Amino acid sequence: MEHGGLQGKLYASVLPAVAGPRPSYVLLHGIGVSHRYLARLHQELAKAADVYTFDLPGFGNADRPRRRLRVEDFAAFVTAVLAEAGVRHYLAVGHSMGSQLAVELALQEPGQVSGAVLMGPVVDDSRNSVARQSLALARDALFSESLSANIIVFGDYFRAGLRWYFTELPVMMEYPITGRLARVSQPVLVLRGAKDPIARRPWCARLAGVAPQGTAGEIPGQGHVFQHTAPGTAAETISGWVRAVDGFGVSA
């Protein structure tokens, strides 16, 4: 789908009409990767919800833009595509850099985004350097991830290309997630893998504390890409949180 000169891919699993409200989830990938490392979580959530996943412009099967995109640009693109698809109310679920996009969508579209899940959020501002982030990524790949997760992630990095990756890297590094998150009025779940060296526990706890309605959660024994290595647990944790905060209209 093309909007504003930007092209991306939308993947949807929509349940037949049933009585009563059910959640709609929009899954948002991080820098360099694609919908592929979200596919298992998509499948788990789709058992009881409508689920939409993207290849954002420049990543996966989507064409590369001619210019650098800001987080705000990605958010505007997602909003336009969802409007075309008739999605009016949803929970934004972002991983890594996708967590920044989830925050931005919550701010830009408060009437549509009923809540946000930040999985392995970046960038920890106490470790805000490319060198530290690269070291943490290497540690995660070597010690915390499965072979299949690494194949998908690094295969997508190769497909996106170093030029586009490094074009977007400063955008990720400079996004002021703590300041932006403090303005999000919707319920927010900050979720990490217990072995994640990128989104460490103190950082995630601080983000949950910054959000006016923030909650912190952890997936035991998993690394940064827990939505691929433990999709059932991740889906149940997210669904359980949605049920717990349903009084705020998350699933409406």
UniProtKB/TrEMBL annotation:
InterPro entries: AB_hydrolase_1, AB_hydrolase_fold. The keyword DNA-binding does not apply. The lineage of its organism: Bacteria, Bacillati, Actinomycetota, Actinomycetes, Micrococcales. PANTHER family: ALPHA/BETA-HYDROLASES SUPERFAMILY PROTEIN (PTHR46438), LIPASE-RELATED (PTHR46438:SF11). Coiled coil: none annotated. Keywords: Acyltransferase, Hydrolase, Transferase. SUPFAM superfamilies: alpha/beta-Hydrolases (SSF53474). This is Hydrolase or acyltransferase of alpha/beta superfamily protein. It comes from Arthrobacter nitrophenolicus.
